[in-house]
Amino acid sequence: xxxxxxxxxxxxxxxxxxxxxxxxxxxxxxxxxxxxxxxxxxxxxxxxxxxxxxxxxxxxxxxxxxxxxxxxxxxxxxxxxxxxxxxxxxxxxxxxxxxxxxxxxxxxxxxxxxxxxxxxxxxxxxxxxxxxxxxxxxxxxxxxxxxxxxxxxxxxxxxxxxxxxxxxxxxxxxxxxxxxxxxxxxxxxxxxxxxxxxxxxxxxxxxxxxxxx
Amino acid sequence: xxxxxxxxxxxxxxxxxxxxxxxxxxxxxxxxxxxxxxxxxxxxxxxxxxxxxxxxxxxxxxxxxxxxxxxxxxxxxxxxxxxxxxxxxxxxxxxxxxxxxxxxxxxxxxxxxxxxxxxxxxxxxxxxxxxxxxxxxxxxxxxxxxxxxxxxxxxxxxxxxxxxxxxxx
Lengths: 213, 169
Description:
The complex is a heterodimer.
Chain A: H1 7-12, H2 17-25, H3 35-44, H4 48-69, H5 77-101, H6 104-110, E1 111-118, E2 124-125, H7 127-135, E3 140-155, E4 158-170, E5 176-189, E6 192-202
Parallel strand pairs in A: 1-6
Antiparallel strand pairs in A: 1-2, 3-4, 4-5, 5-6
Helix pairs in contact in A: 5-6
Chain B: H1 5-28, H2 34-57, H3 60-66, E1 67-74, E2 80-81, H4 83-92, E3 95-111, E4 114-127, E5 133-147, E6 150-160
Parallel strand pairs in B: 1-6
Antiparallel strand pairs in B: 1-2, 3-4, 4-5, 5-6
Helix pairs in contact in B: 2-3
């Protein structure tokens, strides 16, 4: 083309060489090509290192910030601990209420799609099979009473729930009372705490005298 | 005159070279690949094998290295141990652990630095004084956490299965 001296630039940036030259020279379309070497020589040459860095950085910066955005920032547990534990307790209360009610929509919302639910009987449920049993009322949960419920933040967006729970459960009208040791895992999914895993185990003897309700 | 491009282009390359590590480091934190996943599960499997071996050997140093300081260990008997009491139970309890026969051991990466382990294991034990052998068939849920680059055993809940396991294979 008309710019033999910047052939290298045209090879590296095909189709964009003209624009780059205009930017470098601070010029407009009106600059005749002959002026470019002159301008480079007298006005821009000392600035070239700076320009080259700025130009390249401008190209790369959007990539870097996009990549950084996708990595989750680590939460500040010291400050956030109380707020998170309150949110977890609310989520677990909602899980128990939805379980007692056998409410499909509320169960779908609170249970993680990856749920692993291992009963003290040895039965292991997925999300689908647990919701089916609860909504069909083949197993009816009448009451839950925590003797102990402890939330421990174990990582970004992950918490364990440990403790001991008295449960009345069984076919409708014929509940058994279970005294359970529990380990559960909660995970934050899209800003919402969801129930991910559960393993319970019957305690050998009732911990307390049967409760009134 | 030498073209200014001889300066310009190398400087561009230099800038790319100096910034490239930042970009790749940031990308590493997102989207793990299938290969990362396989490597992760291999690492936690090795950590659990080491835990089982250290338990059988009754090796305090190896167990202490395997257990997180925050260990919550809930036995199928209802007993709940922390790290100190669990070490004591394994080392000076009434039984020795002779074998862990996993019927199912599934690892589930749950988030950054956390892997769940769940399944079913036949635990073979021997009474230290009488020599009597017993076997517990248990379901379990457990949590592994990466602490300073090392996978450590953080939580465990076991539950005995009602009937003996059907013979496998």
